[in-house]
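pasting input
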Amino acid sequence: MRLELDDDHRMLRDNLRRFAEEEIEPRAAHHDRTREFPYENVKKCAELGLMGMMVDEAHGGAGMDALAYVIGIEEISRVDASLGVVLSVNNSLYSHPINTFGTEAQKKEYLTPFARGEKIGAYCLTEANAGSDAGSLRTTATQKGDTWILNGAKVFVTNGIAADACIVYAKTDPAAPSSKGISAFIVERAFPGYSLGKPETKMGITSSGSVEVVLEECEVPAKNLLGTRDQGFKIALHTLDGGRIGIAAQALGIAQGALDKAVTYAKQRVQFGKPIAEHQSIQWMLADMATDVDAARLLAYRAAHAKETKERYTLEASMAKLFASEAANRVAYKAVQIFGGYGYIAEYPVERYFRDARITEIYEGTSEIQRMVIASNILKG
Amino acid sequence: MDFDLSEDLRILKASVREFAAAEIAPVAASLERESRFPREILKKLAGLGILGMIIPEEYGGAGFGAISSAIVLEEIAAACASTAVTVSVHNTACAGPIARFGTGAQKKKYLPPMARGDFLGGFALTEPSAGSDAAAIRTRAVRKGDRYVLNGTKSWITNVHEGGVYVLMASTDPARGSRGITAFLVEPSFPGFRFGKDEDKMGLRASLTGEISLTDCEVPAGNVLAEEGMGLRIALATLDSGRIGIAAQAIGIARAAFEAALSHARKREAFGGPLSRLQAIQNKLADMALQIDAARLLTQRAAWLAESGAKNFTREASEAKLYSTEMGNRVCYEALQIFGGYGYSKEYPVERLVRDVRVTTLYEGTSEIQRLVIARQLVGAA
């Protein structure tokens, strides 16, 4: 047992915190307001290896462990949660499955440039009528010679605006029952029949490029099948275990950021003749926020440790994701409360944190899905 | 980071769990119903070294660190919370400060018999008019030659009657306020020492809680712990460790409630199948399991910091105590809810657990005090 960071990870955290505060934070409000995809930030992050953190160096990655990944996503999300999810999707949802299930040729073509951040990846599972019930997706893939023809529409695709390629889940065996007969494909934006729908206008994480991806007779070479035929749902679930650690880290970053802003503000803001930090009501909120943040971080770190040391880490990942995302919402809510009216206006950052936090309970498995996953693990045991 | 227990700790956990299941759990309900002190169990725990678990080996103890202690307390509390608080106070609140601040002579005199279980230890800070505001204590100690004369009343003292020594706080210099508080090692055999009335408590009914009254009680000067004026510092240092113990106790109670609820949910049929099929019940079970894990992680982190010699783990200990005890109350509440009407009956254990866990947000610093402590660490002294 060792319940604090070793020197390497602590140094990584300190360096990334400095980088995030100096390079990313000054433009975070701008990206939030304009909804512009942060290409220049992606480039800066790529130089530090943040686009392929857990990919080995031979394939263009930084070769770091899952704990480093949590630290990376937390520190970026602490100043800009939109950028946090851009990184998380490229790392956990795009690169990780190719790293795990891809052939060497696929890795060379579709992993290396993406882990280096020269290209951007996305993940297409959700459909208009298949959200939590992902197994009910209706996009189809039909084999014609050495080409697959994909038809369907994917929604809420993070990074979609900028993505050079994405992993698309489609039904390859229409007769198979829900969640069976699904396969995963690596689909390039340049393939015929691939187009983007209209970008989503979201409450928060506004600059993460969420858009609809439309596949109309889209031609995908047979070599772009990821893993084996009909193995798709297994790949999706495996991917989501890792993805949930990423979202836990993003939520953690939002919560830590909101807490830090609230502490600073509470020490400066004077009411009733003293800083509001000296009023018990404010102290209580800060204490609950700090406790939430610490518990969330321990759960996220534990999930990362489980990912490195265990065959299955579904339970740990779901627990981390559920707790951290709900904690982020509680913490951001209280941060707005501490800022008072100033917390409600865009001039101060907690208004953005509050909006950004909300999505973390919804994507990569809603809180309701996490509870299902946790309960089924408990009842199985 | 490494979240796995070492082989030694896993063995410790398994063996205490086994002992608790075989020797403590079967009698816990009757002990509490009859308000009977678990004397026989404590004798056996002494035999296992648990009454001297944090006492250094040279004084006959097991020399456990904070992580091991938290594991032991969680396991005992899962079987009987009254026994757990008895063991926790004896170790962390009495043996702990003696081992840390005592002279060689004091340690030699008190620690070996405590480790053997010849008598228990206690901690006497609270007074009828000084609870959370501990610095407001009124018990006075006046030096007279080679002894001090103490007058005052201590209340809510765990391990009354059975205690052979109490770490007791009294003011030697009221003008200096909290800096005038001194810790004494007070024995019930000292002239002027008397146990007052016992409390009729909602829960933890098999633990002993009552009053100590001191009327011109004579304490030898050699029984000052550390030195005059150090009392509040000793109390605060003791509370940091004590809070980890109470967090572990709350986690143990919560775990017992969760396990009872889980087993009930699997067996109880409703709407054509076991309760555990229903999402409403599954959601409760998921939240309970998650909160228990979060609490244990916070507690293990505080214990890890304590054990690895961190200078300051006040915030972490308070976070562990605050979260675990509030969690314990939520989890026991939901466990009773899952049991339905049966949960309200004394035939099932959850009813007792709900009452037992209630005190954990009160003693060794209320939740309100924990929040103040955490906030002070966050924003600086305020």
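fyi Chain A is about 50% helix and 15% strand.
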